[in-house]
């Protein structure tokens, strides 16, 4: 029997998840800041930070879409064992995971409705690295300006135009994560 | 010591994940009320069950928690909630605003400006600012979707027509980042300006009404008003009789049955730290060092 999928969860689920959520919340509340998380050891190609996010936020109530190379047996088994999240297509996803190219086109994901803009997808975008440079961010959560290395600019500008609808993003690389909610204005 | 019969911070992990997802959506759409599946808590609705659930989903064992009720650390609601988290989460607690990492509040914002790294959790009774103008949830939801807030301005106008000024003194409606009109919970309107451009993360939990909403740091929060009747952060026109503060929000306290009364700071920690620093009000006594 393959046992790899059973490894790599939180050692102390309540406390590890509490620390991980605070990092995820700080990231979402202060877009552009880069947080470091720990506690999960997911199988490749899943990054540690993406693994921590899934363990912290996903469960049987959150349909998850795995895109591209992340839609492999090792990741599927690990996610299903540790979170119980149903794996679905992009159109029904509350969370989606993959690299930037694999998540395209973005308009497949729910952006919420006028009355319930919260019924939208949160995308976890796997990156090779994260740094506080590149695109300029402004908006709620940012005092004046922040900078974050985004995979592109135009897609996030289109997403922000949908506000208050739209999808929200986490970017993960290694043990680091950053976030970009729909409320943020992105300039090149 | 944590009561080990309970999960960390009382709630089970699936409930916390559900609340955490709602908090993240709230931060992504500032001022929008996110529905969540509020749980039964070991206290009645109206005693801060929304704030307690948000705090429980937010706390880590490293946090230092402060709980206030109308500005005071030593009233029943504040004492019980502080004890609840001491027992179920084992967190350290404090009364000093500057030392706290998480502050749960009922109806006040502390006088000391909040900073980055702090989280302010509000207990909210009625999260819908339009509820007393339009009782149907289906309609208020449409009004938020269409950004149709004329009714709120009519209400403020009627205040002026009747009283000569905007008579709303607490739960004074605000507009968040030019989009959602939001109920700031029943804080005095004196506290409204503190919500805008605040370094702390502000989270709002309404347990009975099952709504969570949020303000990220440095969010623009504007109190609704008119050009010719601008918003005014009013307070009792007096100084604190214990510490002499002229710029803090005051409670009027009856001291005897012959009409005697004094004004004291509503924020007990602020008043105490001022008196310890040597400030003395009209009826205060010099602190002996």
UniProtKB/TrEMBL annotation, chain A:
SUPFAM superfamilies: PhnH-like
Superkingdom, natural source: Bacteria
Gene Ontology biological-process entries: organic phosphonate metabolic process
NCBIfam families assigned to the protein according to its UniProt record, in alphabetical order: PhnH_redo
Protein name: Alpha-D-ribose 1-methylphosphonate 5-triphosphate synthase subunit PhnH
Upper taxonomic lineage: Bacteria, Pseudomonadati, Pseudomonadota, Alphaproteobacteria, Rhodobacterales
From TrEMBL, chain B:
EC number in record: 4.7.1.1
Organism in which the protein naturally occurs: Allosediminivita pacifica
Recorded family membership: Belongs to the PhnJ family.
Protein name in the entry: Alpha-D-ribose 1-methylphosphonate 5-phosphate C-P lyase
Keywords: 4Fe-4S, Iron, Iron-sulfur, Lyase, Metal-binding, S-adenosyl-L-methionine
Function: Catalyzes the breakage of the C-P bond in alpha-D-ribose 1-methylphosphonate 5-phosphate (PRPn) forming alpha-D-ribose.
Pfam families in the record: PhnJ
Any one GO BP annotation for this protein: organic phosphonate catabolic process
Reactions performed catalytically: alpha-D-ribose 1-methylphosphonate 5-phosphate + AH2 + S-adenosyl-L-methionine = alpha-D-ribose 1,2-cyclic phosphate 5-phosphate + methane + 5'-deoxyadenosine + L-methionine + A + H(+)
InterPro entries linked: PhnJ
GO terms for MF: 4 iron, 4 sulfur cluster binding; alpha-D-ribose 1-methylphosphonate 5-phosphate C-P-lyase activity; metal ion binding
Keyword S-adenosyl-L-methionine recorded: yes
